[in-house]
Structures are given as structure tokens and as C-alpha cells.
Amino acid sequence: KIEYAVYPDEDQLDSFLTGCLEEKHKRDHFTQLVGACLICVPDGMLKERLDPETLESLGLIKQAQQFNQKIVKIKTKLFYKQQKFNLLREENEGYAKLITELGQDLSGNLTSHLVLENIKSLIGCFNLDPNRVLDIILEVYECRWEQDEFFIPLIKSYMCEHQTLCHMLGFKFKFHQEPNGETPSSLYHIAAALLQHNLIALEDLYVHLLPLDSSIVEEHKREILEAKQIARKLTMVVVPSEKTEDKEKEKEKEEEKNEKPPDNQKLGLLEALLRIGDWQHAQSIMDQMPAFYATSHKAIAIALCQLLHLIVEPLYRRAAVPKGAKGGLMTPLRSKQAPRPAERFDDLSRDVFTMLCYLGPHLSHDPILFAKIVRLGKSFMKEFQSESRQDTKDRMDSLLSCFLSIADQVLLPSLSLMECNACMSEELWGFFKLFPYQHRYRLYGQWKNETYGNHPLLVKIKAQTVDRAKYIMKRLTKENVKPSGRQIGKLSHSNPTILFDYILSQIQWYDNLITPVVDSLKYLTSLNYDVLAYCIIEALANPEKEKMKHDDTTISSWLQSLASLCGAVFRKYPIELAGLLQYVTNQLKAGKSFDLLILKEVVQKMAGIEITDEMTVEQLEAMTGGEQLKAEGGYFGQIRNTKKSSQRLKDALLDHELALPLCLLMAQQRNGVVFSEGGEKHLKLVGKLYDQCHDTLVQFGGFLASNLSTEDYIKRVPSVDVLCNQFHTPHDAAFFLSRPMYAHQILSKYDELKKAEKGNRQQQKVHKYIAACEQIMAPVHEAVVSLHLPKVWDDLRPQFYATFWSLTMYDLAVPHNAYDREVNKLKMQIKAIDENTEMPLNKKKKEKERCTALQDKLQEEEKKQLEHVQRVLHRLKLEKDNWLLAKSTKNETITKFLQLCIFPRCVFSAIDAVYCARFVELVHQQKTPNFCTLLCYDRVFSDIIYTVASCTENESRRYGRFLCCMLETVTRWHSDRAIYEKECGNYPGFLTIFRASGFDGGNKADQLDYENFRHVVHKWHYKLTKASVHCLETGEYTHIRNILIVLTKILPWYPKVLNLGQALECRVHKICQEEKEKRPDLYALAMGYSGQLKGRKVHMVPENEFHQKEQPVRSATSGSLQNGPGNTGKPAVTDKSQAAQKAASKNSTAANKVSSSNGSSTPNSKEKEDKEKTTKEKKEKKEKNPGSTPEAKAGGKDKQKEEKPTDSKEKTPKADKDKRKDDKKEEKSKIDGKTAEKEWSKERDVSNDSKTKEGSKVEKSAGAGSMKSLVPRSEGVESDRGKTAPALVYLKKKTITSLTLTSFYGFSCFHCYTLGGAITHLLNEYKNTREQDGETSDLFCKQMHMINNAIISNRQHINENFIMLRSKMLIQEVVYICASLIEMIYWIYAFLIFSPFCSKL
């Protein structure tokens, strides 16, 4: 038994046999091996394969030579010997009778069997050649090719060998293969019929057909190459001379094509096979050719389409015929070998999907079949979506994949080849809209990026579409939108992806095309709109395009253009938004905020919600009203008819659950812009991205609040503690999202209570409203406790915190002027309509009805808001007593209020900026206990440098608007004594002494009087000037830009004092000169503000008119010190007169207050003597130095230098030397600190002993000191030598202790700048007076000891409470503050060591 592990091939076997023949021993082994195989290998196979010698040695033949001779004879007989017929014996009559027999009428009972018997008789009778008879039968069959049922059985019965029939057909095909020959279709038919009935084999017949397969492949490649060349020519810029040459070449090629090539017999046979329904043989032929080569011939494609018609007809009639449609019935194929018709959707996978894949884009030849396939797909999708059983749905998933493949490979490419067929586009959309947008966009992506490169025809179509699109876009203008739109529509029905890709590329370059393009898209189909949405998203997501300009400071113009197009297109046309919204969401999840610009534009255009910080006062006032007033007067462009578009946007957000995720992502991304994105980006760009993110959040939140129903909103937005603690949403954004929810809930509860107890009295309604508020807000009060440290709630009640964040301007005031303004506009419109004689009557009537209805709505809305505001104010009046606890200092309470409430919200939006200012005024008007209005305003106006520096561009606009509203209130109080007395005179916010028992409202002496309030307002103006000049002098882009924006916003109310305005004007003029070439945007801002400032000069007043001011006394060396906001190249601004004025004006009342609160025993007579002495000395000094008036002070730097030698004569050399030393120290401290000295109002006079023993008494005494410190004193200006300085007057009253200690125990870390200046000033005062008043110096030394202790304790306080520092403060600033404190300790110890009064301590 022999086993083979490896079977050798024929070449190996031949080499083996040759080797065996050559060597004797190997041959013997081989013979033995073959002999052993005789039991399992037939003899015939061995005789066929082995050589005669081997067969002879095996004994299978007798003699090898004899065997060879026999083989030769057989081959000669088989291949070379021709059968001889006795042609002379054949009679023509026999052939005539044969033709007659075959040509007779076959409609009767004549059968092929009877005819065959007659043919046999004729052959025998007339001695006919059987092969010639068969040839005649084929010829007759060819003439009567429709008689398949007769001739096929006849041939099947007549013939004996398939090869003979195949050779005859082959010779017939060969006969027609001449250069100009044409093969008749009947021959194709009989060949196809014989193939279908298996009378011949396709492999045998295929070799007789031309052209060869290799020729077909070469032709296909040549077609692809020609198509690409045509496409290249269409995209190239061609010179006119070259165009004529190309045209001549094209003509020559067309002439060559007109020379008819020989028929493609393989395609003819294929067509015949398809027409009779022989799909198997047809598929075999198509497999031999390149993809889609066969169906690219129209006849083949139509034949295949006809076969598909017959197969899908039963299923189409059952499941997909539209209502009311009839259609023509089709007769099925009679052949049993044809594919079976489809009865169910499962049957489509048998043959239909395969046939469609072979057909490819050439389904375009049969639009009816295209519509049938699409309708079948639509019907299947409805059945698939309605199917509830999981097993059936799993089985249908494969069919769903097949339909998707057909859509990708057949339907969309076929649509590209259909010329302007809008009906098919709409049919296809009816199918596609049942898919989710992810499936659709994937199909569009394949269609756009891959399909056009797979087919030569599609390559040409793409090039032609681009060429036509260029032609249209070159001529598109606003004037010819309609005709151009029709051309765009026609082009888009077939090839929307190519057209839109080119249009979008043009829009990215030329944004002025947006409007005409949007208007011209009105002739598109629904499918085209959906494709447009995909193309826009693809253009936005293009990784090859940079979303920043080359300077890295602004967003690219192409992105801005596409965003504008998105807003306009999605608003005007019914395009699905889900894909675009999901794209923006995905970008936010990836930490990219550039594309928020798209969402901003879409919401603005579709919902009519416009976000801008450049609102006018009238618009801002309208924004405080109801929704109708906002729509009419709150936006620059009144976007009407947004109801449908906003509904579409809302539905897209809710259906795909994108509303809350977008809000949360935007809220988180604000910080992500700074800390994640902003690392490598320019600061200017980071600010713009932050503003864009924030503005979009405000806009989007406003849209949700105004469009979502109460139930939808509450269901989707979680509580504020969940937003902050779980989703890490910033507090301002969390309350912004929750605020509409609270308003909805309160109103719903209020309506519920009203229905439960019917009462029409106003008082009952108010009580019910308050009850509704308590029920809804009680959980909120509990929730907000977790948002901050427990220490915060020692001063602010959670109720007050939640009330501040939950209310809006709509709740606080009714904008009557805005309502009246809009109503008057509508009345004017009605009047204009009446006067218009050209307007048709029906249109007049409609417009008047619209205006009247709008007018009624506005009036009703105003009435509704008025009732609401009254209820809210009543509620606040009842709540106010429990708002502020003030367990710590008043300063601490105000700090927390500003830090946690005012500052975060005033920069959130323009309307919130107004709200913050009005809320502060409301808290004051409500006479809220423990709220110091003066201290609040002082903290706002005296410390704006850091806030301004940390704002973005839009935030600085809002902050400026907030300051403007605050200044408006202050200016109103400042303008008239009667207003001040009415609104502030008897209010606790203007107390100068705080008692533990609270506000009694009866002691007029405790209130800040009108004149002192005017001094305070002047100090605030001075502080604003000083901060503004500091920001302008830094040279930092952000500082300069932001302060210019803030100054522009507060221009109506600041500056009011002439010399302060001059100082600002001088510095702004310098900015204009410096930034003209370097930073054009700063130059533009500065020039704009400078022009407006000059226009406001007529409203400015001198300082002595702004507040009562005595003629100032100026020290001899004051010219060398800083007297104003800037000390170089501009007029100096002095505040010394305020100190003298206040020291004099407050002496009469201050003594009693201080003695009662601080325990001082200084008599009133002593104070009067001091006052008279001071006044007398000032008059004498005025006579000596007439140049010390404000006009003389404005002389500038040169004049100050000229005055120095004269002034220095009045000082002793030693004093002068000391003075210059101190001046250097002051200048050094200013340079190190990078800021001007800051003077702050203080709140309590607390000492280490009284702090623990006498709480109420200390609070009372601290109040006196606090209010005294509100009166500004001279900064950095020394008193005359030998005179009683104003600082020492304060020192004798022990108010310096209140000033310094309150700065630290009240804990405002910025006071170190003020304290540094104060210590330097007091040291200088001590040097001038140490020889005259030992008692004062002794007291002064004790005060310095107390200051030293306060500094040390406060340094620890800063370290422990670093987290409580004011928001947006830089770490390096805190480090600098601590360093400044250590330096102060060094100054004090140096003073104490060298003091001659050390022995007394």
C-alpha cells in the first residue's frame, strides 16, 4: 500500500518521468510503482497519460510501435478526414419542403414532435445532410425567434451533441465579425434561449464572441482616463487660443467615434439573456467584465431594469403603491427558468439587491424603477419601525443593511446621473427621512467623497457641475436672485453635494454672497436642504482649515461667514438641526469653543434673541419688561415671524436631549477657555472666546426660558445645589439657569392658591403670592447653604442670597416709558397706514389689526407686570429685617455682599448690571437693617483697578454699565438737597454711628449731612480718576482697553469735575499719540472716548461748585509730591482742601460723638481754638503763596520745578533734607507697589482690649470713627512746618486708631497701600512737630505700637483666610501685600528705636 503525502503537479510529474526514462534503475522502480497502482487506477487513464514504452513494459499494450501507428490513424480520421456526402443525391425539393414545414403556421395543434417526424421523413426521402438540416432549423428559428416554445423542444429532440450546435452558433457569430458587420438581435436571442435551456454551454460559446476580455479592460481604462482629462480641462484656466485647439481635437475624436466599431457580441448576448430572464448566465458574463462596464451601455441597463420591474412587481403592488395611484400591470415572464417574483421583503435579498448592485448608477435610465425601489424602502422602514418583536426586528436588521447599501451604491449615484429630476429627489427624501441623521450624513459623505471617483460618467458629471456652478456664482447678485436661484435649483436636484461644496467655498472667501445665496436657495428640494446641512457641518469640521487668523488674536473670517450662513439658512428653510447641534455639543465636549459662534447665530436668527452689550438706554429699558416689549423694543433688528423657526429649534433640542447638556457644557467651558484652551492662545483671543462662550450661554438660556413650557423646563433643569456640586457649574450660571424655573414655579403655585381660595381683594392676592414664594423658595434656601463656607452665613442669610439671585429687573420695576414709547410707535404706524393711499384695502385692514392687537398686548403686559412688581416689593418689605445678621463687622458684611452677589452678577449681562445697581438702591430704600449704603458705594467706587484689569472686553462693558447706574443714583442724590433729604436723610444706610440696638431713626446728628455727602462724592470721583489714570499708564493692553470701555459707559455721569476731566483728557490724548501706530484698536477706542469727553466738557463744573471748598493751603514743598491721579505731563489734582474743610466743618459735632463713643476728655473750647488757629494760619499762608490756587496747580511739571527754590527757603536745611528723604521713600513704595495709594472708608474702631470686653460699646465707637474716615483728607501732601496738621487733629481725637485698626480688623487686604502712605505721612508729621508738642508725640508713639500689633495680627489673618480674598485677585498681588506689611513693621521699629520719647513707653 502506497500513500502520498503530497500530490505533485504535472510539471513535477513530467520531470520525474523524464528522469526515470533516462536512468535504468529509476525506470524499474517507476514501473513497479505504476504496476502497483493498477488496482486503483483505470487502464484507460494510464493509456491516456503514459508513454507507449511504459505501457508496453506494464503489459497494457502488446507493442508500442503498433500502438503509435493506431493513434496516428485515429487522429487523422478525427481531425483531418471530411465526411463525404453524396451531394449529387441531395435534392433541392427536400430543402424546400423542409423550409415549408418549418415555416408553417404554428398556432394550431401542430407540435414539435410532429414536425420532427416530418423532418426525419424528408431527410430520409431526399437524402438531406443532417447538419445542414440543423443549420436550416436555426435559420428559421432566427427568423421566428418569438416561437421559443416550438423551436426549443424541436432542437432539443433533433440534436444529439451539444458541441455541434455550439460550433454552428459560433460560425454564425463569426460571420458577423466583420469591421462594419452587425450581428442581428435574433441571433442573440436564439443563443440566449439555447443557453437558458442548457442546450449549449456558455464556456463553449463565449470563446467564439468578440471582443476579447483584455480589449474590454483596456477600453474601460481608456474611458476612465478620458473622463479624468475632461475633468482636469474643465477645472483649469485655459487661454482662448488653447480653447480653439481643444475644440478641434474634440471634433477629430468625435469623428473617430462615428466610425462604427464592430459589435460587442458579448454585450449583445448579455442583453438577450436579460430580456428572457436568464439571470445566472447574464451574471456570469458581467463577472468577466470590469465593474459597471456592461450596465454603462444603455441597452443592457434598460434590459436589467425591465427584469427588476418584473421581479418586484408583486411586492410593490402589495406594499408600496401610494394611495390613489393605479399604475400599469406588467405581464410576468413565461419562462420557468426566470427569477421568481418577490412576494415579501425577505425575497428581495434573493436576486433584487444583487441585480441593483450590478446596475449601480445606471438605474438613472429608468426613473420609474427608481421610484419603485425607493417606495419599497420607505414601506420597509415603516414596517421596521412599527415592529415590536425583537426576534423579527433582528431578522430585519440584515434587510436594513441591504437597503442602506443600495442607497449608497445605487440610489444616490443614479440621482447624480438623472438630469434635473426634482420628483425623484423628493421621493428619495421620503425614504431617507426615516433614517436617523447619522445614517443620512454617512450616505452623503460617501456620495460626496467617494462615489464620484468610481465611475467615468460620474467623473465627467462632477466636472460639469463645478463648471456650471462657477458660471452661476460669477453672475449671482441681489438683483438676479430669482433666475440664478432657478439655475441653482436645477443643478442641485442631481448633484447637490458638488454644488454646495463650491458655493460654501465661495462664501468662505466672500461673505457678501451670503444674502443672495440664502435667497436663491428657495427652489431646493427637501433632500437638498438636508445635504446642505451636511455640507455645512463638513466645512466647519474641515481639519485643514485654521479657525484662528494668522495673528492668533481673532477668529477666522471663514468661520464667521459659515456661522452667519447657518443662522440665515436654518431660519429661512425647514432644515433639520439635530446634526448641527450635536456637532457643537461634541466640540464643546472636546474642549473647543470656536464653534459656539454657530450656535449663537442660529439662536439669534431662529429665535430672535439678540445678545449685544452695545444696547442703547431705551433698548435696555425695554429688556426689563415682558416678552412682548423685549421683542418690540429690546433688539436692534426686529426679527419677526420667529414662531415657527423657534419651535423647530426647541423640538430639535428636546427630541435629541441636547438642551441641558449644551447649557452645562457652555457654563463649564467658560473656565475651560481660560485654563484649558487659553494656554497657547493670545490673551486677546482668549478674552473673545470667553465672551463668546458666555454670551452664547446667556442667549441660549434666555431662549430655553422663553420657549420651553414650565413642565419641560423643570423636568430638565436640576436644582441649584446639584448644578453646582455635581455638575461643577459656576454659581452665576447655575442661578441663571434656575431662575426661570423659580419664577415658573412661584406663578404656578400662586395661581393654584388663587383657585383654591377665591378672593379678589388685593391684600389677599399679596398674601397668597408671599405664601407661594415661601413654599417654593424654602428648599432653595436650604440648597444654597452648601454652596459656601459656613462662615459666609454669619453675615448674609441664605434667604437674602437666594432672593438676590432669583429676582430679575422684571420683578423690581415697571418700564412705563418703554411701554409708552412702543405704544406710541404703533399708533404712529396705524396713522401712517391710514394715510397711505397706495396700499390695498385688505392689506390696510390686516396691518391695522396687527398693530392694534400688538398695542393691546403691550398694555395688558404692562398692567400684569405692575401687579407683579407690587407683590414682589411687598414680599421684600416683609423679608428685609432677616436679610443681614452682621455678626462680624459691617465692612465684612459689605465685602461678602459684593464678592458673592454684586460682582459676579454685574458682569453676567447688561440687564444684570442694571439689576445689581437697582438692587443696592432697593436695599437702601427698604431701610434694611445692618446695611451700610455709604460703605457699599464707597467700596464700589474706591476699588475698580483690579476688577477692571480682570475683565474681558464684554465684561468691562457690563461693569461700566453697572458703575454708570450706581453713579446715576449718587449723582441724583448729589444734585439736590431736597432729594438727598428725602431719599437718604433718615435712612440707616447713611448713619455715621452704628449702635448695637440698631437704627432708631430719630437722631438726626447720627446721619451724614448733605454737604459732607458732596465731599464723599467728590472723593469717589477722585478715586475713579486715580484708578483710570493708573490703568492708562500701565501700558498693558487689557488695562487700557477695559478702562476706556468703562469710561465710555460712565461718561453721562463722570467726570463732573473740571480738573478731573482735564487730567483724564490729557492722559487719553497721550494714549492716542502712543497707540496710533502700535495698537490701532486701542487708538480707535481712545479717539472715540476723547471726542465724547470733549463734548461733555460743557457739563463739567469747577471743584468749588461740585462741593463746598475753602481756598486750599499748600505747603512749600507740595509741588514735588503727587497731588493728582498722574504726576507727569498733566495737571495735578489736589484734595487737600477737603481735609481742611472737613476738619473744620465736622469739629462742632465730632467732639461730642467721639467723646461719647471713644471716651475722650478733650473739651469743646479746645477744639474751637484749634479750629480758629487753623483757619487763621491758612489765610496767612494764602497771602504768602498766591500761586497755590487750583489754577496755579495745573501748571504742570515745569512750573513745579520753578517753584521749588522759592518754597525751600521757608524750611530749615535739616527739615528739607528729611523731606527729600521721605519723598524718595514714597516714590520707591509707589514703584514697588505698581499702584497708587488707596484710601478706603473704615467701619469700626476696635482695639485688642475693647474687642473682647465691650461689644456693643465698641461697635458704637467704631461707627463714629468709620464715618469720620469717609471724609476725604489730603493724600501725600505735607502740612506747613510749625502749624497744626490735619492729620494731627485726627490724632488728638484718636481717630487714627479707628482708621488703621478698622482697616485690618475689617479685613480688606488692599488697605495696606493706604496704610503704607498713612504711616509715611505720620512719620513726616512727627518730624515737623516733635519739638513743639511732647504730649502729641507720646500719644503718637503709642498709636504706632497699636498699628504694629494690628499689622502682625493681620498678616496671620491673611495667611489663614487666603481663600476669602476678593475674587479675581492675582496671587502675586497677595504676596506683595504681605511683603508690604513686613516692610511697615520695619519702618515702625526704626521709628521707635530712634525716637527721643522711647523712655516714656
Compact overview of the structure:
The chain is built from 67 helices and no strands. The protein is mainly alpha-helical and 1401 residues long.
Write a structural description.
It is built from 67 helices and no strands. It is 68% helix and 0% strand. The chain is mainly alpha-helical and 1401 residues long. The model is unreliable at 1-8, 256-260, 994-1002, 1111-1314, 1360-1372 and 1394-1401 (pLDDT under 50).
Give structural attributes.
mainly alpha, disordered N terminus, 1401 residues, disordered C terminus, elongated
How do the helices and strands line up, and which of them pair or pack?
Layout: H1 10-22, H2 24-36, H3 43-49, H4 52-58, H5 64-79, H6 92-103, H7 112-126, H8 130-143, H9 148-158, H10 162-175, H11 185-196, H12 202-206, H13 213-235, H14 240-258, H15 265-276, H16 279-287, H17 298-319, H18 352-359, H19 367-386, H20 390-417, H21 422-432, H22 437-449, H23 456-474, H24 481-494, H25 496-509, H26 514-520, H27 526-540, H28 557-572, H29 578-589, H30 596-607, H31 617-622, H32 627-633, H33 643-655, H34 659-675, H35 683-707, H36 710-716, H37 720-725, H38 731-756, H39 762-784, H40 798-806, H41 809-812, H42 816-835, H43 841-879, H44 890-906, H45 910-925, H46 933-941, H47 945-949, H48 953-975, H49 977-983, H50 1010-1033, H51 1037-1049, H52 1058-1078, H53 1080-1095, H54 1103-1106, H55 1136-1145, H56 1147-1158, H57 1164-1184, H58 1190-1193, H59 1197-1208, H60 1213-1233, H61 1248-1253, H62 1255-1269, H63 1286-1292, H64 1295-1305, H65 1311-1329, H66 1334-1360, H67 1371-1394
Helix pairs in contact: 1-2, 4-5, 6-7, 6-8, 7-9, 8-9, 8-11, 11-15, 13-23, 15-16, 15-17, 17-18, 17-19, 18-20, 19-20, 19-21, 20-22, 23-24, 23-25, 24-25, 24-26, 25-27, 25-28, 28-30, 29-34, 30-35, 34-35, 35-38, 38-39, 39-40, 39-43, 42-43, 44-45, 44-46, 45-48, 48-49, 48-51, 50-51, 50-52, 51-53, ...
